[in-house]
């Protein structure tokens, strides 16, 4: 009897303590785009060291997840590579510009593709690398899921209205896609600069324009987008401080492969 | 004194029975709520979006943005991957079950059984990871598959995952046979192999069917390991080593982008409902098979 009473007292005490532990720290939950993930993770790490009473949890899941969960108020900040026209209640905080690259397996030696060639590959019209200037090898197309923001940017800027053939492999998350392209001969896919620069995959030039930050800034390279951090209404309190932190720490942007919005020579309203 | 103790134990008895009743009621309520919710949401594709049921089941035109909801590719993908796993893991599992029951000396059985139990304890993500790192490159090098991802990779991973289920149920099926069968067969001069194939296998057929059906149920529901190696290509598998997609993998891949109330969300719920009905059908089949052979 006393044992039961002791256990009950223990549970009661623990449950009373738990909420106080939560109140002691402010917590911010962030999820969404895996293209933005490296920047947010880096910034969150530094921010938490500067403000030990703030706990920030960062995860991926894709731009679709970020928007959906922010709209459902399940998370505080939803990261996304695309705008959210269907969710007018979400406040768009743009934090950076990111370029995306079409990547191929380095063993192919393919350095340049025209937009038309990219469209033919991803619609399934062309199925062997020798048709686009590569070796005699079957093309292994790796798509992103329908909820991927990267895919939405790809379809909008490069596919010219044509539908992507669904019969390719589908892999999720920037990191996974790059890893698969690196190890699979004949593979082609697309991912953000933050995930492709220096990762052992071949970033092809599109219509002769190299996938570099300078070409994105000049507006010559078409495959880029703004990075958005969506919040329910205008951000307040710690959340707005963190977003401002991400926007102003331009050294983190450069370190992780992103571009300052203010550097851009072109502007787009619907990215 | 005794009367007080009797009254206290009687009260404890009543409270305990009510607590157990409440627990059972809660479980039944949870199951019923789950079924009702899935039925409600899963039929929205047909009631709200007006997609004909036959189109969902038998057409392969899948484009949620254009309200095309043919889930045949995923249904066929699930069935084919499961059959592959059954064909590889089923006979293997029954053979090991027979070995454990009929031939293995107790010491060897004492080592094998814990080893099989370890297989059960391995999380599916570890299976998927090993499949991704070891099996996929192997298939890429040695078969016609261009990437290594595909039906064969998923089928092999799944067959290993269903092995423990099939082995332990097969072993139980064999062990539950009366010794008289074996003794009678041996007395007539048959070898152990002849006994196993001609006498034990037919006699244990209902138990073995249950082993295979439950292995099948496990394979149908497996999501993560399959998604990591299947390739998730929205097409029918053009060959044994070609990539395809299954119901479980499709749900997990498109779930993030399924906004509330969208056609895609309804489609995914319908797929989930289909999986649930399939699993229920298998469980009912098990009960039917067991009842037939008393």
H/E series of chain A:
HEHEHEEEHEHEHEHEEHEHH
* Largest sheet strand order of chain B: 1-2
Structural class by sheet pairing and helices of chain B: mainly alpha
The number of distinct helices of chain A, counting runs of at least 4 residues, comes to 10
Stretches of chain B where pLDDT is under 50 for at least 5 consecutive residues are: none
Shape field of chain B: globular
Q: Radius of gyration of chain A, Cα only, in angstroms?
A: 22 Å
Write down the overall mean pLDDT of chain A: 87
What distance separates the N and C termini of chain A?
A: 66 Å
Number of strands of chain A: 11
Radius of gyration of chain B: 24 Å
Largest beta-sheet details of chain A: 9 strands, mixed
Say what oligomer this is: heterodimer
In which range does the helix fraction of chain A lie? 25-40%
Mean pLDDT of chain B: 90
TL;DR of this structure?
The complex is a heterodimer of chains A (271) and B (294). With 271 residues, chain A is of the alpha/beta class.
Describe this structure in words.
The complex is a heterodimer of chains A (271) and B (294). Chain A is of the alpha/beta class and 271 residues long. Chain A has helices at 2-24, 37-50, 63-71, 115-123, 149-158, 174-183, 193-196, 213-217, 237-248, 250-256; strands at residues 26-32, 54-61, 77-80, 90-104, 112-113, 140-143, 169-170, 187-192, 202-203, 205-206, 224-232. The longest helix of chain A has 23 residues, at 2-24. Chain B is 77% helix and 1% strand. Chain B has 13 helices and two strands. Chain B has helices at 2-42, 44-47, 53-58, 72-103, 106-121, 124-142, 151-175, 179-187, 192-203, 205-221, 224-229, 247-254, 263-292, and strands spanning 62-63, 68-69. The model of chain B has no long low-confidence stretch (mean pLDDT 90). At the A-B interface, helix 3 and strand 7 of A face loops of B.
